[in-house]
Fold this protein.
Amino acid sequence: MSDKNPATQRTECNFCTTTSTFASTRDRAEINSNVRKFADERFMVWRCETCRSIHSLDVVDLPYYYKDYPFQRQKADAGLRIISRNMLRRLRSSGFSEQSSLLDFGCGSGLFVEWLRRRGYGESHRFDAYTERFNDASALDRTYDFVMAQDVVEHVEDAGELLDQLIGLTTPGGAILIGTPNAEAIDLRNAEAHRHSLHQPYHLHVLSERVLRELGTSRGLRVERFYEVYYTDTFIPFANVRFQLHYARSLDNTLDLAFDPPHVSWRLLTPKSLGLAFFGRFFPVKTEMTFVFRKAV
Ligand SMILES: [Zn+2]
């Protein structure tokens, strides 16, 4: 925090041309990384008081932090099947079918596309600039009926540029699904409760609902659907966000827990844990939003 060189800090909101800056806002917090390897490191985040988006202040050496990124340990297990079904349901609600072509942009482990292909969605493709197996840019030489970017836009420096790229990859009349944390639902006075949505130092800019909506509509996209609940939130016992947050807090509260074998801790053997495991979905956490945009024909 001692380095005040502006070239290494995000002190102005890149979504607004206002005077709301890091220096002028009082809505800011310092929080620990939620990745185990860096859990002792603290990062400053601040909110633009005009558009309500949240920015990570310090520009850090991201390749250093992405080395051994926990998501690389994602496995095709029962949990992944449950959330994949949820994501597929959302896509189908917007017309996705076995005949549709799809690009999972920023696919990470790539397992969702593998799962789709096994279920007969043969025209499903993936791309991730940061995963060696999936960084073949030839996937970007064509257009798709559906382009999805789940947990991607908050990782980039220029969300507008990303949207332009996604639009360019979408067939006229096609759909673009963008899932990302919603800054408007994150209370920085209680930042610790939101450490997974803030996910420092990886989330460079957490967009507000109004900023993401505007980024889309100003580019001619129509908002077809808006979901205020994360696609990983289900009614299946234990597979809900409220329980998972409770589980994480009972342990070391890192993202790594999602990819560890299940930890059985006496602290979890409480009526509250069981209540959340079975009924947590009835009290949804609304910090993650999904927009489905439609590109004009
Ligand atoms: Zn702003």
